[in-house]
What does this fold into?
Amino acid sequence: MSAAAVPAVTPPAVVTPPAVTPPAVVTEPRRGIRFWIRRYLLAEIVGTATLLLLGLLIIGWITHPVAVAVAAIIGESLGFYAVLATIVLLEQRRLGRRGFRALSLTVVLLVAEFGAAELVDSFVVRPAAISLCVWLIPDPFWGLLAGKILADLVFYAMAASSFVLTTKTRLRPAHPKKD
It folds into this structure.
């Protein structure tokens, strides 16, 4: 047989499946340090002022570190949440919500953002941190401040995570309307 008589065998065509493109993942933009400072700075300033005011006021009558810590925590909570409630209510108003709806959503958002963090913070972390620092540091002003900062580290790790969760679950819009 001649070489010309042998039919050429062609390998079967390899069929490659079409490239599978994963669905687009919708992600929220990463929030930088400026966002968190703008969000919490005013509340922190007012909360710190009321913490020091009540903490130093009570130390004139009672010097027990736990009593000082409780007074300081009450003062800080009042100042901090008065500011944040106002901020969240203004966010709701920018979104066109008014009256009872705006107030109720403000409460829901504050609980969603701070509820878990506040429970752990108010009943465990902050009393322990402030009591310990007031006991260890001779100057009550610096003891209160050091305890507050120590407790804030734990609090903000939890609160920031909860804030992000409220946007991911669409309880809060990712970017509220600007004025």
